[in-house]
Amino acid sequence: MRIYALPIVAGLVLGGVVHIVTTLTMPRLALEDAFSRLARLGPPNAVQMIPDPKPSEAVLPRMDPSFTSAVCVYDLTAGTLRVRVPTTTDYTSISFYTRHGLAYYALNDHAAGQRTIELQLMTAAQRAALPEDEEITAADRLIIESPTTEGVVLIRAFVRERGVREETRARLAKVSCASET
Description:
The chain is of the alpha+beta class.
């Protein structure tokens, strides 16, 4: 029995290591990740409306049909990005993700306390290059630092009932995501 113990333990350890390595590397090696699916909707640094999810097809998996969504796939190599989101009557959220799906910042209309959320998205190097202006304080503009130059800004608005879906989509169509050089 002892002669079988070492190969069994070695096989279990090797299987565990292969499982962990595979689980951690698959998101980076996947060809159909969320970033590539969303990038097909339109050019970078522009807002695209995400079609409402249907049971047979959806741009992203597990999308909630109670929300209507817009996305801005960004590329910060040319300059910073100014995002302007008019809020809706119920609930509006903005989430920021890296190219590989790591969420690094989120904001909703209740936390912002304004009818229009305006912010600037930039890398740490771009923020360091900003001139020190004493007239403009941190309260005047919200600056978000992106850990990568590519990523996704996901804007979602809650649709309380079916009759206001088109009104909510029209409000979300006013979202702007423009590059600043």
